[in-house]
């Protein structure tokens, strides 16, 4: 069994009984899905299940995901303040694009985490920062 | 699926389920408020900050900079 982003989104919709989540709801979902994935990666690294290089790659993807969600949120805020018209439509489209980028990067992130975990114990032990 | 993969997905699934329930509560409400958005953003920032704390070593920073440079070179211009 493998959970795709779409599967998780469908599960959420089923739980919520909501067929068409608002853009705000999609952003909240994206933030929370990101938080769960990032925390899982951090825990794996701390437990030594991920090498420094694997963790570094995951962090790069994490930044892409977070930047995409933030961009979507910024565009959505602007769209909400804009009166109905082409300007608002363009900003809404920007928000949707940001969300698509973030969703694609989230799928990549979860795949990287799964692959890193499947490779087994790290060859380079995880290092905690010096106090 | 290997046992490691299964364990990973169970862990991710458990966390995701609890998060989904929290988000589902918000979705049931008429509107996602600015506070809901801010709270979700804070949870994501906290996860990223924890990740940064775990990676806080000069060696890892150098490695990440090298990987980022390699990836940017691989991207078509």
Write up what this structure looks like.
The complex is a heterodimer of chains A (131) and B (77). Chain A has a single domain (22-118), classed as Up-down Bundle (Four Helix Bundle (Hemerythrin (Met), subunit A)), CATH 1.20.120. With 131 residues, chain A is mostly helical. Chain A is elongated and about 55 Å long. Helix content of chain A is 76%, strand content 0%. Chain A has helices at 5-16, 23-46, 52-81, 86-118. Chain A is built from 4 helices and no strands. The model of chain B has no long low-confidence stretch (mean pLDDT 78). Chain B has 2 domains: 1-30; 33-77. The longest helix of chain B has 26 residues, at 3-28. The interface between A and B is large, with 56 and 47 residues.
Number of domains of chain A: 1
Cα radius of gyration of chain A in angstroms: 17 Å
Number of strands of chain B: 0
**Span between termini of chain A:** 41 Å
Helix content of chain A: over 70%
Write the layout of secondary structure elements.
The complex is a heterodimer of chains A (about 130) and B (about 80).
Chain A: H1 5-16, H2 23-46, H3 52-81, H4 86-118
Helix pairs in contact in A: 2-3, 2-4, 3-4
Chain B: H1 3-28, H2 34-54, H3 58-74
How is this structure best summarized?
With 131 residues, chain A is an all-alpha fold.
